[in-house]
Amino acid sequence: MENIVIEGGTPLKGRVQISGAKNSAVALIPATILAESETVIDNVPNIRDVHILIELLKEIGGQVRLQGGELTVDTSRIKAVPLTNGRVKQLRASYYLMGAMLGRFKRASIGLPGGCNLGPRPIDQHIKGFEALGARVRTEKGAIHLEAERLRGARIYLDVVSVGATINIMLAAVKAEGQTIIENAAKEPEIVDVATLLSSMGAKIKGAGTDVIRIEGVKRLYGCRHSIIPDRIETGTFMIAAAASRGQVMVDQVIPKHVEALSSKLREMGVKVIEADEHIIVDATQSTLKAVDIKTLVHPGFPTDLQQPMTTLLTQAEGTSIVTDTIYSSRFKQVDELRRMGANIKVEGRSAIINGPTPLTGAKVTATDLRAGAALVIAGIIASGLTEISGVEHIERGYEQLEAKFKGLGAHIWRQSREGQVPLYRVK
Ligand SMILES: CC(=O)N[C@H]1[C@@H](OP(=O)(O)OP(=O)(O)OC[C@H]2O[C@@H](n3ccc(=O)[nH]c3=O)[C@H](O)[C@@H]2O)O[C@H](CO)[C@@H](O)[C@@H]1O
Ligand SMILES: C=C(OP(=O)(O)O)C(=O)O
């Protein structure tokens, strides 16, 4: 077991290249099940969630190769093998295997998903969608079993705007007979990315990226080539880190429009944010950071996945900031850890109230989930002294080479075995 150790206090400087989007990759990989020949996906991030999904595809007979960001999947000989083992529980996105296997085989048995512990993460809207398409659904021994004689297109209104349900229903509906209309659909860029892949496979989808998606079912889908969009949450993580450290960073190979909500908030705080076609420069070298309020919302609102890193930045802003998470009300596990480092934050209901600025000091802290991990890495970068972060496995689920990328920007960050010589002072 390893920890991340950071000696803080250096402003970040330089250029960082962003990887392919985790939250696209984890849907695109299951989507390859729908094709009856070879699919090649480029710009695949080298992260734990991707590795687990590859193992799951292999378990059902897929031939899979990941080489330098290029994933080749041959699903011509896969079978509807039940996936009810421990692996599916290691990530949330294993639930996309339900929609994809239902679409391809008209049946699926998939263990209940895992993922970050952000409070309740229901999947009732996914189930409602599958049932509307004609599937019988039962939950038994920790797994969901889906079965349909035929899948028939349907009009499905989502009671809550859900990225997961929108994608999962799309995966099953592309192979249903007739037309499916998903109303009150989520509009996240990852949904558009999945629709692009499915369309390249031969699916007929209109309206992805709006709140009404229309799908005309087809009989067969074929392999294709697809490149994953840049990770907007990784983009945002580096933008926030640049601002928090009062640095100047070019965040490269991104789609600036995907992080507009964050760019606006950073500008409101007094940070210079310059957008070009494929990069964003964040310059906080001359900034006096001002407090702002944040409310997480569905896209194009402020993303819940950046709420936790943002709380770290707001500890450095002058005044009181209120951060409200309307998507996951208890996504504040980073707060206790930030307090250990000197932050003045209290959580009331679904809001965190942050008073700043407070200098942070290094401490031993634990990453309890993926973005809490990112929040603590940023805290370590700006804190005085040494910060030691355990729970690195959460960070590895979703960030490719996080330490190497921060090191490239001048941060003093390294891995150390837990049994190693980690006194919280620098060994001379
Ligand atoms: C809208 C939103 O910001 N979604 C984020 C959410 O997606 P994720 O797919 O986890 O969540 P959803 O978008 O599906 O859910 C949004 C909201 O709807 C609720 N819900 C969802 C499905 C369901 O069947 N029933 C139900 O009540 C959820 O509890 C949540 O409060 O986390 C992902 C990983 O952190 C992010 O990449 C997504 O951008
Ligand atoms: C919470 C996240 O991941 P997951 O939904 O896969 O747990 C995330 O990407 O921020």
Automatic annotation (TrEMBL):
Domain Enolpyruvate transferase, residue spans: 7-405
Stated role: Cell wall formation. Adds enolpyruvyl to UDP-N-acetylglucosamine.
UniProt similarity note: Belongs to the EPSP synthase family. MurA subfamily.
SUPFAM superfamilies xref list: EPT/RTPC-like
2-(S-cysteinyl)pyruvic acid O-phosphothioketal found at: C116
Catalytic class of the enzyme: transferase
Residues where phosphoenolpyruvate binds: K22, N23
Organism: Caldalkalibacillus thermarum (strain TA2.A1)
Subcellular location: Cytoplasm
Catalytic site: C116
Gene Ontology molecular function terms on file: UDP-N-acetylglucosamine 1-carboxyvinyltransferase activity
UniProt protein name: UDP-N-acetylglucosamine 1-carboxyvinyltransferase
Binding site for UDP-N-acetyl-alpha-D-glucosamine: R92, R121, P122, I123, D124, Q125, D305, I327
HAMAP family (UniProt xref): MurA
Catalytic reactions of this protein: phosphoenolpyruvate + UDP-N-acetyl-alpha-D-glucosamine = UDP-N-acetyl-3-O-(1-carboxyvinyl)-alpha-D-glucosamine + phosphate
